[in-house]
Amino acid sequence: GRRLGAALHGLYYVLITDLAFKRKFLQYFVRNYSMFHHALMNRKLLALWGISTSSETPSDDDAAMGVDFNEDIPANPIPLIFSGEDIENQTEDRGDILENFSVQLFTVPALVPVMIEHGLLDNMIISLLEVTELLCGGRTLDSDGGEPLLEDRMVVNPAKLNDMDAPLWRIMYDMRYVLTHAELARYLLEFRLDLFEKLLVVMSFLQGMGSVRRRSREHIEYENEHWTTVFTLELEFYHIVDLLSEAFAGSGAAGKLAPLAEDQRHRVLDVARRVLLSWIEEESLRRSRAGSNYSESFTLHFPLHRLFGMLAHSMLQGGSVTVEELVGGIHADPESVVRDALLIASDIARSQSFIAQIHAGMWNRNGREVSGQPLLYKSPYCVEWFVDLDIFLLQLAAIAAGPHEFEKLLCSHFECDTLTDDTMKSVLQPIGDEKVSMMRSLVETYLRLLISIVTERSRCGFSDVENFRRRLIHRLALSDQPHSHLVQFVPRGSGFEARSARNPVHGVVDRVIEEIAYYTTPREMEQGKYSLREELWKEFDPFNAHYAHRERVLVEQQYPRHLSLMNIRTDYLPFTAIGSRRLFPAMSRLENLSLALCERSSFVGRVLHLLAGDMSSSWVSSALRECTLLVPC
Q1: In whole angstroms, what is the distance from residue 575 CA to residue 582 CA?
Q2: Backbone angles phi, psi at 517, to 5 degrees
Q3: What is the biggest distance separating any 2 CA atoms in the chain, rounded to whole angstroms?
Q4: Distance from the CA of 133 to the CA of which of 52, 504, 591, 611 falls in 20 to 30 A?
């Protein structure tokens, strides 16, 4: 059997160079894609259902996480392609061939019509749906390390990701190959909204994954790395969403495709909004039924929200749509627009309060599983998808719902609405017990978030070049960087390329780098690095939303020194006026948000009132003084 398999494999490699053979073979491969996918799943499915093909036992990780695979055996399991004592070896062989087929068939532009005609996207998305459903459910440890809690919802269980990784990643990589062809991505959005909705259902299974509950009595005894895999999984979906977004905006295939028609773009956005709001309503019902155990869990993972944000951003760039139409639909009444805006913003606001609580030291007993999440959230690979889109969604909600309803929502998630004036006075002083210190940190982070909402322009005003320039300035403000690190900050989908042996043209990337930095020639074994030009510190913003907590502390120590070198007063206010930052026309109301936030009845207004009599007092923390000076810009 093996000799015959090897001979057939060799024959395949001889014939695959012929386009006619590729076309015919692809027809067969597409029709039977699910069969190959099931073959790759065989071994994983057997392990998942607790049916051992060897002497292997469940891993220690699975046992520690309380995962019981036997409880998830489906009533009608997917039929196995192979059986018998050689099942493992045969499955692995078929999986290897599957990987080779994908790369050599799905990357050929001339075969796109065959992929469309024979339903490749149908098979892929349905297969992805099957795998993702198998990853849902299961048990997670509760906040105090007691009995495992069975979650009553369809959400990916991180403890199962490593047990179904091969078929999951294989299908997702195949989708990336396929959607790289802008024509196929365009086909999905223009003619197959039913299939697009199925893909959104898959993404809904990722909503809320990796949720954790705070330990209050004892430290965690077992730490796992499932939380990093969850970030990886959401970022893989970001790749797919980005390819769809390019087709949606007409920037695919180096800009050769025109944007979707305006009415079709609204239809696509309507589907995304409907699936998102449906998930939010179902999640709200589950929380109300489950009580405090469920409602006290926190997560940073909301890919459906961010997909909606990316599509909304593309619509705004066209300039012919209002924020109300984006949030509620074209014919929505004002009340439903406000309701939907607050619903969409609520989960994002809750995730921001989670990050604030981590910085305040309220989750120390949960270990690295929690403390590492804000670092990944604001890492260079994540900020465009996580940070920028989260702030953009909050900006949309602030405009659509109005500043007062929006501030009320944020205050409730950060628990600032419970603070009396007497409590605020104690919080504003740099002394106090641990509880007061934690609340002070929450207030500081809340004010910084408001500043980001008022001032950030990455998704609502800046061009790709402006975004790239700004990101480089703030990265170089931290430390000198080699060229290889700087090119990591090129905005995804911008099409910018750095100069290289393959691309010798002096393009946008190198031009921007040379404008803002100078190169230091390496000595001996050192690496050559770029340093920020001194005059560019005038464009530095100490409230930049991309900085992690530790990075912000570091750069705040350097900023006054550079200001003094330029004979500028040494405070932390941005040198460039916030009002001069460009906004998309539909987002122009964001300029007036700070005025409403600083009314006497608002939380910021209360802080300003308490500090008005003694702004220079030593008991006013510097961070709070900076925030209260900036917000009424």
Answers
A1: 16
A2: -140, 160
A3: 88
A4: 52
DSSP H stretches of helix in 331-402: 334-359, 368-371, 373-377, 389-401
| One-letter identity of residue 371 | S
What pLDDT, on the 0 to 100 scale, is given for residue 126? 92
Distances (CA, A) of 267 to 150, 188, 199, 615: 37, 13, 15, 52
What is the rounded CA–CA span in Å between residue 154 and residue 161? 14
State the DSSP string of 40-79: HHHHHHHHHTT--SSS----HHHHHTT--GGGG--SSPPP
Query: What b/e string do you get for 194-206 counting C-beta neighbours within 10 Å, with b at 16 or more?
Result: ebbebbbbbbbbb
Residues 6+ apart with CB under 8 A from 39: 81, 82, 91, 94, 95, 98
Token pair for 600: 């006497």
Q: For residues 82 and 104, what is the distance between their CA atoms, to the nearest angstrom?
A: 25
The SS3 assignment for 113 reads helix
Asked if residues 191 and 120 have their Cβ atoms less than 8 Å apart, the reply is: no
Find all residues with CB under 8 Å of 409, minimum gap 6, and list them: 342, 345, 346, 349, 397, 401
DSSP per-residue letters across 389-438 = HHHHHHHHHHHHH-HHHHHHHHHHHHTGGG--HHHHHHHTSS---HHHHH
Q: Are 246 and 181 in contact (CB under 8 A)?
A: no
- Strand pairing partners for 34? none
C-alpha dist (Å) from residue 381 to 165, 169, 575? 21, 19, 28
DSSP tag of 306:
H
> Is there a contact between 209 and 155 (Cβ–Cβ < 8 Å)?
yes
**H or E segment to which residue 13 belongs:** helix 2-15
Pair of tokens at residue 414: 């950060």
Q: Please check whether residue 127 is in contact with residue 196, taking contact to mean a CB–CB distance below 8 angstroms.
A: no
Coil/strand/helix, residue 238: helix
pLDDT score, position 398: 96
The rounded Cα 70 to chain-centroid distance in angstroms is 32
At a CB cut-off of 8 Å and minimum separation 6, what does 535 contact? Answer: 566
The gap from C-alpha 560 to its chain's centroid, in whole angstroms, comes to 33
CB 421 within 8 A of CB 601: no
Helix (H) or strand (E) holding 508: helix 508-516
Rg for the chain (alpha carbons), in Å?
A: 26
Tell me how far apart the alpha carbons of residues 582 and 470 are, in angstroms, rounded to a whole number: 13
Handedness of CA 606, 608, 613, 619 (dihedral sign): positive
Q: For residue 529, list its beta bridge partners.
A: 520
149-150 and 517-520 strand pairing? unpaired
- Determine the Cα–Cα distance for residues 210 and 216; give it in Å rounded to an integer: 19
Amino acid (one-letter) located at 454:
V
* pLDDT at residue number 558: 85
- What tens digit of pLDDT does each residue of 492-548 get? 877 776 555 455 545 889 999 999 999 998 887 788 999 999 989 888 888 889 998
Rounded CA separation 189/263 (Å):
12
Torsion angle of the four alpha carbons 529, 535, 536, 538, in this order, in degrees rounded to the nearest 10: 150
Q: Give the pLDDT of residue 390.
A: 98
Q: How far is C-alpha 136 from the chain's CA centre?
A: 20
Instruction: Please give the model's pTM, rounded to 2 decimal places.
Output: 0.87
Residues 255, 261, 263, 264: is their CA dihedral positive or negative? negative
Using 50 as the pLDDT threshold, list the residues of the chain that sit under it: 52-96, 139-151, 252-254, 501, 505, 617-619, 633
